[in-house]
């Protein structure tokens, strides 16, 4: 059995967590928004520099209040992916605050910040906005076009293996 | 009976599985999911990878609510309880089927999330519009100031040129240049007005004036224009229209000139009717209805809603020139006057523009005073924290400062043309600080400051004053200190320095109750 690692997708609702996961695992995309309730889990095996790892990805119901996350959903996570919607500022204006909460409760779990739906925004305006709020995402992605989706999950996998 | 029911209920809704810590099935009642003993649970669903984490958790029992599990083409929502027996290395899992319950929860959350997201998106769009509008204003203000200066010299020199003994042909040509540049000037003034209105820097000043006289002047001027185009111009004055009213004459005139000019511009044949009426005159405040009716080209139904926005130039109307700014100004001025502008139009038949505004009726000075004290200022200056007076004679410099102040809604700026004007305004209004140009006609900045410092009203005599000067000679700085100025800034003004200095001085002034020294 290869190593398996739990990854949790966090963020406001409607930011594209399920879409990113579906793009990564099944390489499909739908414009229809189907709300995730509770948790939906998918797995995918990736090999990083010849090393195999099974990512168990928990796609958790979105919320803007991270203190409301059920601890059992987050327990045992090797990494968090914090997704925001680049086309809706409300989904990242409270990022700092939510990150603080995570680092307090899960000090040893690394967080990757992803700005999704970049296909909908003007790159320059987004950069300016993010800069003015001092937000530095690890990746800007689009589940719709597939931009950076594989890269971001592989980056997470590589880091998880390194921390092992 | 109960036992039977319990059995049935449990059979349909719960499944109990026992596995080892590597998720290999030791026992399962297979009530819902059928999982052969010896198989790995992780091969049934990735949720069960969780089992390997349980050993590291401090508690023996854990609850996972609303876990989606697909099995044999069916989607379940389970609440799952796990219990670990550390000694024997066994894990018990209780799966409780809440599929029906969670399906109804899903419906509610779907509706809620969708509506919140729609709202977010609308808000986002609105923010974008605001940003664009701000940008447009600054752009307008900049461009119009830049154009105005050279334009003024063009208009000025054309006048000089006219008097240099030109022959007939040359005079005709100069007259064309003159009328074009005057047109251009009025467009630039419109632009400036718009940016001022939108930045909240245009003041409405209600005063008593003779309405009949204003209307007579307007009618006379437009009758001549209409005659030139061979269209009839009719004027109807309502019977009970009062002679004296209290309103902003300048802005009312601007609104009416725009409406009448448009009517003439867009009418090729037929007539224009200008009527002014009021339902009654026996009240302190009455609505007055100004109506301009033409038989011009009219407006498409779909365009009627947008003609008041700036930069809207209906395609067809483009034929007749104009920037489409006039109506935008009309709309904004009418809002500042708390009036209402409406349009009815049939394409190809003509249009009716109707402006309704409440005016004070003034037979005596008292009513006028009352209204005057309610004189409304445009949006931002009303909310400004600090009121600053600028003494400055050069228009370009006045505009430059206005532009800088437009970006600081906490400050409002009034302008005085010279030292004498500064003193006059100080007697009428309360200011928090004065910016004083040193060289001005009639009374310069030094003289004005000296008089302010000797003023008998303590609030006035202690007001902070900052000198603004293009020169930076030691003598000037020395003299400005001597007459009692509190700061000295050199032009071109550095915006940050200006606001820092003002903030500091105003704070000190307020703290001391009456003054700085
Ligand atoms: N244009 C565009 N739309 C996207 C993208 N990603 C997701 N969407 C759309 O955004 C909506 C929400 O996507 P989901 O993936 O369901 O969002 P979620 O974060 O899982 O939402 P919750 O499950 O409610 O927390 C859907 O209509 C998607 O089609 C993207 O990259 N570009
Ligand atoms: Mg989802």
Automatic annotation (TrEMBL), chain A:
Q: What SUPFAM superfamilies does the entry give? A: P-loop containing nucleoside triphosphate hydrolases
Q: Which GO terms describe its molecular function?
A: GTP binding; GTPase activity
Keyword match Nucleotide-binding = yes
Which InterPro entries does this UniProt record tie to the protein? Answer: P-loop_NTPase, Small_GTP-bd, Small_GTPase
Report if keyword Protein biosynthesis is assigned. no
Coiled coil located at which positions? none
Instruction: State the UniProt keywords alphabetically.
Output: Nucleotide-binding
Q: Name one Pfam family in it.
A: Ras
The name under which this protein is listed is GTP-binding protein
Automatic annotation (TrEMBL), chain B:
The reaction(s) this protein catalyses? ATP + protein L-histidine = ADP + protein N-phospho-L-histidine
SMART domains per UniProt:
HATPase_c, HisKA, REC
- Report the enzyme's class at the first EC level: transferase
Q: Domain Histidine kinase: where?
A: 142-361
Listed EC numbers = 2.7.13.3
Task: Tell me yes or no: is Kinase among this UniProt entry's keywords.
Answer: yes
Q: What is this protein called?
A: histidine kinase
């Amino acid at each position: 059995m290869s190593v398996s690692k739990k990854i949790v997708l966090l963020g406001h609702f409607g930011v594209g967590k399920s879409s990113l996961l579906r793009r990564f695992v099944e390489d499909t995309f739908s414009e229809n928004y189907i709300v995730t309730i509770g948790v939906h889990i998918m797995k995918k095996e990736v090999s990083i520099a010849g090393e195999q790892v099974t990512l168990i990805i928990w796609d958790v119901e979105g919320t803007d209040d991270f203190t409301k996350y059920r601890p059992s959903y987050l327990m045992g996570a090797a990494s968090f992916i914090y997704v925001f919607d680049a086309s809706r500022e409300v989904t990242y204006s409270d990022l700092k605050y939510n990150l603080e909460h995570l680092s307090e409760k899960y000090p040893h779990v690394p967080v990757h910040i992803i700005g999704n739906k970049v296909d909908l925004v003007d790159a320059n305006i987004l950069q300016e906005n993010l800069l003015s709020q001092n937000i530095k995402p690890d990746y800007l992605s689009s589940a719709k076009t597939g931009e950076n989706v594989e890269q971001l999950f592989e980056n997470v996998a590589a880091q998880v293996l390194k921390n092992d | 009976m109960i036992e039977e029911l319990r059995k049935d209920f449990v059979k349909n809704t719960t499944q109990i599985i026992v596995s080892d810590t590597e998720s290999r099935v030791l026992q399962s009642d297979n009530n819902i999911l059928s999982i052969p003993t010896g198989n790995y649970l992780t091969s049934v669903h990735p949720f069960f990878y969780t089992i390997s984490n349980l050993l590291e958790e401090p508690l023996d029992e854990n609850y996972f609510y609303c876990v989606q599990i697909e099995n044999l083409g069916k989607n379940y929502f389970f609440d799952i309880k796990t219990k670990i027996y550390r000694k024997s290395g066994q894990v018990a899992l209780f799966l409780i089927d809440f599929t029906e319950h969670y399906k109804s929860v899903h419906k509610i959350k779907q509706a809620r999330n969708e509506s919140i997201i729609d709202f977010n998106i609308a808000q986002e769009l609105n923010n974008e519009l605001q940003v664009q509008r701000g940008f447009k204003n600054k752009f307008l203000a900049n461009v119009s100031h830049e154009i105005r200066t050279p334009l003024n010299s063009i208009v000025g020199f054309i006048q000089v040129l006219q008097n240099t003994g030109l022959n007939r042909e040359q005079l005709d040509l100069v007259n064309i240049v003159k009328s074009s540049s005057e047109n251009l000037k009025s467009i630039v003034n419109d632009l400036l007005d718009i940016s001022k209105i939108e930045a909240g820097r245009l003041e409405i000043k209600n005063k008593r004036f003779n309405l009949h006289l204003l209307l007579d002047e307007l009618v006379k001027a437009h009758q001549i224009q209409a005659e030139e185009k061979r269209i009839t111009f009719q004027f109807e004055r309502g019977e009970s229209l009062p002679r004296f009213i209290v309103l902003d004459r300048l802005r009312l005139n601007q609104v009416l000139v725009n409406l009448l000019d448009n009517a003439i511009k867009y009418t090729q044949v037929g007539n224009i009717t200008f009527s002014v009426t009021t339902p009654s005159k026996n009240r302190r405040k009455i609505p007055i209805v100004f109506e301009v009716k033409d038989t011009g080209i009219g407006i498409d139904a779909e365009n009627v809603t947008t003609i008041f926005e700036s930069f809207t130039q209906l395609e067809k109307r483009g034929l007749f020139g104009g920037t489409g700014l006039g109506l935008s100004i009309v709309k904004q001025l009418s809002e500042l006057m708390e009036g209402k502008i409406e349009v009815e139009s049939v394409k190809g038949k003509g249009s009716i523009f109707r402006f309704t505004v409440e005016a004070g009726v003034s037979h005596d000075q008292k009513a006028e005073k009352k209204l005057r004290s309610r004189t409304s200022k445009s949006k931002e200056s009303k909310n400004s924290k600090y009121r600053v007076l600028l003494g400055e004679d050069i228009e370009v410099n006045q505009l430059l400062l206005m532009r800088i102040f437009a970006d600081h809604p906490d400050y409002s700026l009034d302008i005085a043309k010279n030292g004498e004007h500064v003193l006059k305004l100080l007697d009428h209004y309360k200011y928090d600080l004065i910016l004083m140009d040193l060289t001005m006609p009639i009374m310069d900045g030094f003289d004005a400051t000296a008089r302010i410092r000797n003023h008998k009203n303590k609030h006035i005599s202690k007001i902070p004053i900052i000198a603004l000067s293009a020169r930076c000679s030691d003598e000037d700085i020395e003299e400005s200190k001597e007459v009692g100025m509190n700061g000295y800034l050199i032009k071109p003004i550095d915006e940050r320095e200006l606001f820092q200095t003002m903030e500091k001085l105003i704070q000190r002034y307020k703290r001391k109750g009456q003054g700085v020294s």
